[in-house]
Amino acid sequence: MMSIPASRQRTLQALTTFLNTPLEALIPPPTSSTDRVLDLFQQVARTVPAYQRFLQHQGIDPTRIQTLADFQTLPLTTKDNYLRHFPLAQLCREGKLEACDMIAVSSGSTGQPTFWPRFITDEYQIATRFEQIFADSFAADRKRTLAVVCFALGTWVGGMYTANCCRHLASKGYPLTVITPGNNKAEILRVVQALGADFEQVVLLGYPPFLKDVIDTGLTEGVPWPQYNVKWVMAGEVFSEAWRDLVGTRLGSTRACFDSASLYGTADAGVLGNETPLSICIRRFLADHPQIATDLFGEARLPTLVQYDPNSRYFEVTETGTLLFSGDNGIPLIRYHISDQGGLIPYEQMLTFLRDHGFDAATKVQSEATAALHQSGTPPLRPLPFVYVFGRSHFTVSFFGANIYPENVTVGLEQPDICDWVTGKFVMQVQTDADQNSHLVIQVELAPGERTSPEREQAITQSIRQQLQRLNSEFAHYVPDEYQTPQVYLHPHGDTRYFPVGVKHRYTQPEHSQPEEQP
User: Fold this and answer.
1) Terminus of the chain with fewer CB atoms < 10 Å: N or C?
2) Would the pLDDT of 219 be above 90?
3) Which region among 148-152, 252-256, 350-354, 364-368 has the lowest average model confidence (pLDDT)?
4) Are the C-beta atoms of 475 and 467 separated by less than 8 Å?
5) How far apart are CA 324 and CA 335, in angstroms?
6) What's the burial of 362, exposed, middle or buried (CB within 10 Å: 0-12/13-18/19+)?
7) Distance between CA 127 and CA 164 in Å, rounded?
8) Considering the domain 402-491, what is its CATH architecture?
9) What angle do CA 274, 297, 340 make, to 5 degrees?
10) Does the pTM exceed 0.90?
């Protein structure tokens, strides 16, 4: 009798577990995460040739790693010292690239492509993050839902991964239908108008600036967004709560904590965590109380705040305040350093901190749940820890010793009198004039068809200054008053110098010794 291939056995076991296990059981209390990460380490040390050699080069005997304290002595892995140091197949279990059924590509900040093999079983654990959002936030387990994938398709990580995970939810019994126009704006608008009325809700999934562009273009073309009961899922960038409110207003959203969710994901390991109604409720409170947010996070900018399952992705924080994680994938990763600045906050510690500052987050979000989800009772408040993420440190600029964050500037562009004629994209720089005086210079992209004017430049200038003073105490106290007014220049949509179409946008550029000639 012919034996069943190991890949088929893995698939059947993972599929059966995912389909037959309720969401509550897929997200158990995080009590066994230490044992799980130690087990993962031992498995990787036994089966992954590259990691075996990595440990040998470091003089480490994996059999001596028996406790969490032992685990925390292991060297960090990075793209440079691990992923780029070994052949791709050697990074996979048993050195078999063919044991993975799909390869995705990411370009990263350097533009150099990186390949990410995975097997379908990796997708099932990531699909649980999507299930958490679709069930707890959108009640999609009971509502006919059209999921519109607006991430780029092809070899890139986001689009295919998202489409597959949504299809896994449909296989589990969710009344969910997936359509994949990708980042083709005209096709997105076409399919929403053609199909949206056949469903109880439409979920758009994509990068925040692109989704906003889709929504704004739809409004100019007469798309009746509120009729489609639109929800939206985002990934890839930090955004402000003012941005969430702005997009929600244009879509007709009335339940901010239940109508959207952001994913914290990387090409390296899929989705690491996700926003929940509770994390959004907390973040909105902190957005209105910047000093409390600074006390909690230690910085004058509002990070992405998500909850994560330590049984799926085990996080650590370095002494310098950057994040590590360990997790199983096509390329299993142990103590992988992703260079994201951030931190971890246990569930009870977060709620206690907020209560001590006069805010009962659990009661607040539960009071909103019944109306938002149109059901009796409330969704579970899952006692998962929080991870907050600022992003990479090189996305800031230093001005008179104050760190200026893109998140601070963004809020200035999202004010009601401004947001209709800008896209939200900008580039900030510190430029030095002929007298060696430093100036904060901000290049801003106009919305399609909009024109610059001195009045518009002045309006944005004052708005950005006000928000920097309100949100960034370093800016308010370090920067002399006469230098606090930024120099703002408006550029046509798609300007090739700062906003080239089809290229991943960067919000900072290196300092120039002389200001460039401005239009």
Assistant:
1) N
2) yes
3) 364-368
4) no
5) 6
6) middle
7) 8
8) 2-Layer Sandwich (3.30)
9) 55
10) no
